[in-house]
Here is the input.
Amino acid sequence: MSELIQLGSHNERPMPPKADELNLRFSEQAIKELDALKTHYPNQKACILPGLWIAQREYGGFLDGDAIAEVAHRLQRSYAEVQGVATFYSMYNTVHNPGKHKIEVCTCLSCHFNSAYRIRDYVTKKLGIKNGETTADGMFMLEEVECLNACDRAPVVQVGDRYIGPVDEKAIDALLDELRASTESTVIKMADQIVQVQLKAEERIGSIR
Here is the structure.
């Protein structure tokens, strides 16, 4: 039997990525925030989730391989361990760059019975993209999601930390116009808000986005 699978044998864990192997992009503020969050937990492994939120903000809303590697390096975990956590939770953007605004259309039961698929198809027609795609200008991503727990507002869509509903075609037009006129990314803003809420008041340096 291979030593790697012998019961009770000691096998070293995969090593964290080394700094000289990476293109580190965390800002000074991000490093200070992560250092503060480490003190909230019994070990660095427990800080993976908030570390990923910092990375999602710092890397423009998308957790690519470099972003995951940086979190692994700064928390002294293996790349595979951090990647496994990031890809488990749908709120982390690991599969596709969400662009500036991610439009999440709920198609679960209550929304389904209130024309959610008609709304999804309308957004598809308006933006020229299908589920999971981002517009060529990087402005919008469309994502069909499961229950957003806002059944009283069906059909409902989520953009960043906002629930909008009930929506119809007119409401979608107004929402798209509003987002196009905005200078901030709702994807990055939401990541920053989640980071800030986990910090104590004295640890908050202030939003950088």
Residues 169-181 form the longest helix (13 residues). Strands lie at 101-106, 140-145, 157-159, 162-164. The chain has two domains: 9-95+189-203, 101-184. The two ends are 54 Å apart (CA to CA).
